[in-house]
Amino acid sequence: MTRIGLIVNPVAGMGGPVGLKGTDGKVQEALQRGAVPNAGNRAREAISPLARDPGICFLTCSGAMGEETLRNSGVRDFSVEYRYADESSGRDTQAAARKFRELAVDLILFCGGDGTARDIFDAVGITVPILGIPAGVKMYSGVFAVDPGRAAEVAHRAGTLPLQDTEILDIDEEAYRAGKFETKLYGIARVPVLRNLVQLPKAIHAEQDDDLAKDGIARFIAEIMVPGTLYILGAGTTTERIARDLGLEKTLLGVDVIRDGECIARDADEQTLLRILGDGGEARIIVSPLGAQGFVLGRGSQQISAEVLRRCGAGSLIVVGTPQKLADTPHLHVDTGDSGLDTEFGEYISVVCGYRIAQRKLLSR
User: Fold this and answer.
1) How many other β-carbons are positioned within 10 Å of the β-carbon of residue 103?
2) What is the pLDDT of residue 207?
3) What is the DSSP letter of 63?
4) How many CA atoms lie within 13 A of 17 on its CB side?
5) CA distance 105 to 102
6) Beta strands at 230-233 and 256-259: parallel, antiparallel or unpaired
7) In 10 A of CB 272, how many CB atoms?
8) Cβ–Cβ < 8 Å for 352, 319
9) Which domains does the chain have, with CATH numbers?
10) By the 8 A CB rule, do 8 and 69 touch?
11) Cα–Cα distance for residue pair 243/263, rounded to 1 Å
12) Considering Cα of 201, then 240, then 303, then 360, what sign does the dihedral take?
């Protein structure tokens, strides 16, 4: 019998669609901007396939920190081992993780982002394997499954899988909101591993390593831009170079919208994108994969939501990435939160990697 301790961070990811680039200390602002909690839905996607698995015993927290997810997923036989009062906090996450360690669980399965991962690591270190169901705004650490469905696959075999040491990264969230990416190693955790089902930590390449490739990508994208068409630019240095080539200043870690050489929205959230798209006309989305992890969608630019993608159409996506980044990224992934939409992207995706040059990359499911 595999004993799994489940922790859900109910507010994880709320800051992403509304453009806050994180939810730590920003829950009320996210709610004021119209954010809707979604971590429970993400957790349910991972738990539902395990609901009738006789080889798994769940231990969890009360209410929205796990109990509701298990009940809504059809799990009936579980025990609530930690109860919290009022709104949950990082202290509750740490206390629950310590309780699960005392009860000798085989795996702590959590739903959240890097902040939740750090809280759990603070409580248990390397004494208990952990695995993340991705639901946060920032998920640069290597403890997350590629998507909720694959979290279920790993959890199903958690007691028999080899364990791997992987990095938990500490992101300066205030600097991140200001457009600076500052990261440091926070700790080394232990994660059960199935090939291509657990993501790698984010890799950061020095800009000078592939400046020429970025210049080539930017010149080519400028060449193929169609007058009157909206272009939604995701986060990153490659899309920033595209904007710079057009004489525009790009929000490095945000989402901007340009048309006919002008920026019509900076650091746009999901609702801003939907409002602009509601005016009609053609639209394209330009994004770059997250280094090493390979996420084209679902990490870093969550303002480009499933609804935004549906408005534009799967065929509107233009992926750009330098040869160095692609060499270090064996597979690409999409995790829009809508599995039906994810399948519309097919098995392969073309990535513009230079001036009039593209590579065809496998889109891992």
Assistant:
1) 14
2) 44
3) G
4) 24
5) 8
6) antiparallel
7) 18
8) yes
9) 2-192 (3.40.50.10330), 207-362 (no CATH)
10) yes
11) 9
12) negative
Q: Which two tokens stand for residue 258?
A: 């340009």
Which helix (H) or strand (E) element contains residue 272?
Answer: helix 270-277
Model pLDDT for residues 275-311, shown as the tens digit of each residue: 999 988 899 999 998 866 788 888 777 899 999 999 9
Residues 6+ apart with CB under 8 A from 163: 129, 190, 191, 192, 193
Residues of the chain with pLDDT under 50: 205-208
Beta bridge partners, 231, equal 258, 284
- Decide if 203 contacts 328 (C-beta within 8 A): yes
Q: What is the pLDDT of residue 80?
A: 97
- Residue 183: per-residue pLDDT: 64
Distance of CA 107 to the CA centre of its chain: 21
Distance CA 356, CA 213 (A): 11
Residue 107 CB-half CA count within 13 A: 29
Strand runs labelled E in 75-126: 78-82, 107-112
Q: Which of 115, 117, 113 is nearest to 128 (CA)?
A: 117
DSSP string, 277-324: HTT-S-EEEEE-PPTTT-EEESSS-TTS-HHHHHHH-GGGEEEE--HH
Put simply, whether the predicted model's pTM sits higher than 0.90 gets the answer: no
Using an 8 Å Cβ cutoff, are 349 and 361 in contact? yes
Tokens 């899988």 sit on residue? 161
Q: Tell me which residue has tokens 């009022």.
A: 86
